[in-house]
């Protein structure tokens, strides 16, 4: 009866060192209005029982232990730890003020379904969003529902600083909780929901910023870079040796720019044959309720069923439509989940010839088996172009950038927003110049992490020698082919880890600039040490993870033998991914 009325007697067994002296405390609690001795919670887990304790010696319950996963500090979860610390400092709080009793939730063996979890995972009204994380989520401070002297740091996706919101907390971590945004009661001055152009925005994990004016997005990305250097290059900040972070370069296209999308689907384990078509699209971000439009779309699973993506290019969206149709007919063949590749492929058309005869034979086809293509024009050169959508990872894709032709395997790395690439390659080229050099002075380039040769080739004019190094043999073979196809003879490419470069380097360091464009995890210390020993005239470091870039720049300047001889000339962001939180950062280093 008591249980029905949502009242339970919760026994908190306080497992002190001396088990014989174990005291059993009985606390009466009401779900959502708990009266418990807070000093007990947090020390041991809560165990519930429906009958009063007897004199018999209770069996020592096995407690589940919370195991924190090791995270790379420059990964989103790692960066969040810095963001929490900074937020706490601003709010005059300490880590211990916001720690959650995760083991109490883990060991919630209540017969009244998850009593402890229910206390933590509740609706909270009128939450003021204080900050934005680098992941594009709102951050706020709320009361701890169990330990009344404590608070909680809460992550609110789609919450903007200044918003007053209602949320539902659904997951507890040691020093933060996750929530869904239920409604915005008072909007932030930054928020303009009328700008949202996608039905799935607010539910899909792809975009975070569609409700922001573009200038505001660029400003926020600059803040992300500033914060990243604060967290990961504190010595450089303390010494005041970093330049102001420049304004972020915008993307010429703010929608329809992504030349690659990878929708996916899941097949539940143990299902032998699928009976209904699974959702095909992108990951869902929690269970938000703040946008009625989004709530109606995409289904309820962890993968949203997505028909169209406004940041994808036109041909990618056509390809997505074709592949969804094909999936409708073929889904029963799949035993496991999979990812579908959609990659834009471009052909320059000879206007004197028939278009159909110039199209490549492979690519996404419509219901009737006809290759789907669109015809368009290069706004700069006026060339007629045909676009198709490639779905086979091994197929060769062509892109035209800066007047050069690039080919690569559809499944290998290539930048995803070709509208911004001419701006980026120009900026990199200009910043590679060695100060006080004349046009006839020797100038060489090293392109570490060169992929299929984008920066090597776009910077090769007027340069004596370019050496690219790249771990993927496939990408290197394309880099070689691309140099040849563009009539470039001064580029040489090496397969291997970036540091392999220094094994047999034959170009003078004083006349050499280095391009670094590593993957998200950044450069290895070994590579940075060898780079400093090589002592190049300039370094241009391009990064898709400004946090690992900041860490590497501090390491290079402060922990390598010759790093102290360098200064940071400039740091600027490039917005490769409008509407999302991502930002690319370019840092230029030169000798003092
Ligand atoms: C961000 S991509 C840049 C590629 C190229 N600069 C571009 O813009 O197309 C990073 C590249 O580094 C390569 N890579 C990853 N780890 C590497 C390593 N240890 N040494 C050399 N290359 C590596 C990847 O295969 C990938 O092509």
Automatic annotation (TrEMBL):
Gene Ontology BP term (one): RNA modification
Active site: 544 (nucleophile), 544
Enzyme class, broadest EC rank: transferase
Keyword Methyltransferase tagged: yes
Entry coiled-coil feature ranges: none
PROSITE patterns: SAM_MT_RNA_M5U, SAM_MT_RNA_M5U_2, TRAM, TRMA_1, TRMA_2
Domain spans labelled TRAM: 117-183
Reactions mediated catalytically: uridine(54) in tRNA + S-adenosyl-L-methionine = 5-methyluridine(54) in tRNA + S-adenosyl-L-homocysteine + H(+)
UniProt keyword terms in alphabetical order: Methyltransferase, S-adenosyl-L-methionine, Transferase, tRNA processing
Residues binding S-adenosyl-L-methionine: 415, 449, 470, 517
Name of the featured protein: tRNA (uracil(54)-C(5))-methyltransferase
């Amino acid at each position: 009866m008591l249980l029905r009325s949502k009242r339970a007697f919760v026994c908190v067994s306080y497992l002190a060192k001396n088990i014989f002296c174990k005291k059993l405390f009985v606390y009466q609690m009401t779900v959502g209005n708990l009266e418990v001795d807070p000093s007990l919670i947090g020390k041991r887990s809560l165990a519930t029982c429906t009958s009063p304790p007897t004199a018999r010696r209770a069996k020592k319950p096995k407690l589940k232990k919370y195991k924190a996963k090791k995270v790379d500090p420059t990964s989103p979860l790692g960066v969040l730890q810095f963001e929490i610390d900074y937020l706490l400092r601003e709010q005059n709080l300490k880590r211990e003020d916001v720690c959650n009793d995760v083991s109490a939730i883990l060991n919630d063996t209540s017969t009244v379904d998850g009593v402890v979890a229910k206390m933590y995972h509740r609706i909270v009204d009128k939450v003021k969003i204080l900050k934005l994380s680098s992941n594009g989520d709102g951050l706020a401070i709320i009361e701890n529902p169990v330990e009344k002297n404590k608070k909680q740091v809460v992550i609110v996706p789609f919450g903007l600083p200044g918003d007053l919101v209602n949320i539902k907390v659904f997951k507890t971590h040691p020093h933060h909780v996750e929530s869904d945004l239920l409604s915005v009661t008072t909007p932030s001055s930054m928020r303009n929901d009328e700008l949202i152009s996608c039905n799935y925005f607010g539910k899909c994990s792809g975009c975070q910023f569609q409700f922001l004016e573009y200038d505001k997005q660029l400003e926020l990305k600059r803040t992300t870079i500033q914060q990243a250097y604060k967290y990961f290059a504190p010595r450089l900040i303390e010494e005041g040796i970093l330049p102001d972070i420049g304004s972020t370069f915008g993307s010429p296209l703010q929608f329809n720019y992504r030349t690659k999308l990878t929708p996916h689907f899941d097949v539940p384990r143990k299902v032998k044959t699928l009976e209904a078509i699974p959702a095909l699209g992108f990951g869902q971000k929690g269970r938000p309720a703040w946008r009625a439009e989004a709530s109606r779309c995409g289904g309820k699973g962890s993968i949203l069923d997505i028909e169209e993506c406004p940041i994808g290019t036109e041909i990618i969206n056509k390809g997505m439509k074709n592949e969804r149709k094909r999936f409708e007919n073929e889904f029963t063949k799949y035993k496991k989940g999979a990812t579908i590749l959609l990659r834009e492929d471009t052909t320059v058309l000879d206007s004197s010839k028939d278009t159909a005869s110039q199209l490549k034979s492979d690519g996404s086809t419509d219901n009737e088996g006809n290759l789907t293509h669109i015809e368009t024009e290069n706004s700069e050169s006026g060339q007629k172009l045909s676009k198709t959508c490639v779905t086979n990872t091994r197929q060769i894709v062509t892109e035209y950038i800066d007047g050069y032709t690039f080919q690569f395997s559809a499944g290998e790395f290539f930048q995803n927003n070709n509208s911004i690439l001419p701006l980026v390659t120009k900026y990199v080229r200009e910043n590679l110049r060695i100060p006080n050099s004349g046009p006839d002075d020797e100038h060489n380039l090293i392109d570490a992490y060169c992929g299929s040769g984008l920066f090597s080739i776009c910077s090769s004019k007027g340069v004596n020698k370019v050496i690219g190094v790249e771990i993927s043999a496939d990408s290197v073979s394309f880099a070689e082919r691309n140099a040849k196809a563009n009539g470039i003879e001064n580029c040489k490419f090496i397969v291997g880890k970036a540091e392999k470069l220094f094994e047999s380097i034959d170009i003078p360091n004083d006349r050499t600039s280095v391009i670094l464009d590593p993957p998200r995890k950044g450069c290895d210390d070994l590579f940075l040490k060898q780079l400093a020993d090589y002592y190049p005239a300039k370094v241009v470091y391009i990064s898709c993870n400004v946090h690992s870039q900041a860490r590497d720049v501090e390491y290079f300047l402060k922990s390598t033998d010759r790093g102290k001889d360098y200064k940071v000339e400039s740091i600027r962001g490039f917005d490769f991914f409008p509407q999302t939180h991502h930002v690319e950062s370019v840092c230029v280093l030169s000798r003092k």
